[in-house]
Amino acid sequence: MVNCKNFIESAVGLKILDRINVKILTVILVGLLLSSGGAFAGDFTDNHNGTVTDNITSLMWQENGYQHGLTWEQAISCCEYLDLGSREDWRLPNIKELNSLTDRSRLNPAIDLVSFPDTAFYLYFSSTTVMSDTGLAFVLNFYNGETGGGYKTYTLYYTRCVRGGM
Q1: How many Å apart are CA 17 and CA 1, to the nearest integer?
Q2: Contacts of 95 (CB under 8 A, 6+ apart)
Q3: CA distance 163 to 90
Q4: What is the 3-state secondary structure (H, E, C) of 113-161?
Q5: Which range of residues forms the domain containing residue 145?
Q6: CB 63, CB 50: distance < 8 Å
Q7: How far is Cα 160 from Cα 82, in angstroms, rounded to an integer?
């Protein structure tokens, strides 16, 4: 296990850090790691059948997704019944998988438009429930790559299905 205090002291040249500062820096470092984005241009293969494979995660993605609003349950159902690229094992991605599509070096949109040309710069549902409020699911905004919570039942968001697993 990495000793954050020793790492920070040697990296920054500090001799004394109290536990509060280490905790604050640890939270900042973890936050930066979690929000550091995902794929970059060139990491994808167009399968020429309406699907795109991520060469880093090996996930296969629906190229265009559903470009109209769905509730969370509708999004799950649409993915479960999707027959695309001679595959029928599609599902709604979790927030980690969906976030792997973001390209933090881009804005408006934060995704590779060569591989995903018809991506709406809008919120997309994930299968991940927000634990502090089970009426919400995590959503990803492809305009800027930010995540947040969206209501499952009466808010309509876009959907991109995935197959495989992280």
Answers
A1: 19
A2: 126, 127, 128, 138, 140, 147
A3: 5
A4: CCCCCCCCCCEEEEEEECCCCCCEEEEEECCCCCEEEEECCCCCEEECC
A5: 44-163
A6: yes
A7: 11
pLDDT in tens, 68-97: 899 999 999 999 999 999 999 999 999 999
Same domain, 80 and 124: yes
Classified as helix, coil or strand, 64 is: coil
Strand partners, 39: none
Residue 55 DSSP symbol: T
Three-class SS of residue 52?
Answer: strand
pLDDT band at 166 (very low <50, low <70, confident <90, very high): low
Give the CATH number of the domain where residue 125 resides. Answer: 3.10.100.10
Mean pLDDT along residues 40-64: 90
Is residue 117 one of the residues assigned to a domain?
yes
- Per DSSP, the three-state class of 87 is strand
Is position 12 within any domain? yes
Specify whether the CB–CB gap between 166 and 60 falls below 8 A: no
Contact 67, 120 (CB under 8 A): yes
- Cα separation, 113 vs 144, in Å, equals 14
Q: Is residue 15 domain-resident?
A: yes
- Single-letter residue type at 100: S
